[in-house]
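Hello forum,

I keep getting stuck at the same step: I have a sequence, I want structure tokens, and every attempt I make locally crashes halfway through. Rather than fight my setup again tonight, could one of you with a working pipeline run this one for me? It's a single chain of 254 residues.
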Amino acid sequence: GGVIGLFLMKDKEGIKPNKSNSFFNDFTYSLKPSTIKQNKMLYVCLSGYMIASIGYQVYINYLFNIVEGTLKIKNYIIPVGIIMVLAAVGSVLIGIAMDKKGKQNFYYPTIIAGVIGCIIIWSAKFFVDKNATAEIIVLIIGGTLTIGVNLVMAGLFTASYRDYIPDGKEGLFQGCRIVMYVLVPMIIGPVVAQIIINAANRGVASENIVYPMELFLGCAVVLLFCFIPSRIVRVEGAKHHDELMKELQNEVKD
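Reply #2:
Ran it on my machine without issues. Output:
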């Protein structure tokens, strides 16, 4: 993709390099306290998906171990493949609906769907060695909701975050985005998971340790904290939208 882009992608005419800033200044721009203070809403949006990503990291590293070892589903490729396809297609359809109906209508339902999905997939444990068909159905339904919600949350908060990027500073917040979307979740998520794993396997010999379904309940608890940035983004986002529309209308009049 990168090689093809070298030949197909062209810079906009008139773009000139900014030689007044050094690489270090650009690199640290989004991490400066003054930048954070001036762009509070941008960081609120980033924190929303950061929390969702922490929840995702609680279980995703152990997903195949859970399906094959804990749920004892040996032929797991097909159900896991179905989950991934349904989650991807569903997130695209929800994305189209968000464009038509507005992002503000999807924050709370998405979080609730994620929590419900985690509870559903957790309940698959009650069908182990009892009803294999029901177990797989529960896994697919819960897994589709859980994985799909993570994709939708990425779209929701990333789209909102872009609304608050100052003009001319578009590329200077990517480092902070990666820190909050990837680095922080990949540290905190596995720590939370390890606490749950240790609690579930207390007194169990190392060779008998299993990855508990309670990892999904841990994810559900983490997702509840998404309500905090979601509420802020919904309220402030509506105000910001109205301000942008007024500016646009004034430009049209001029």
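The chain has one domain: 39-245. If your local run keeps crashing, start a new thread with the error log.
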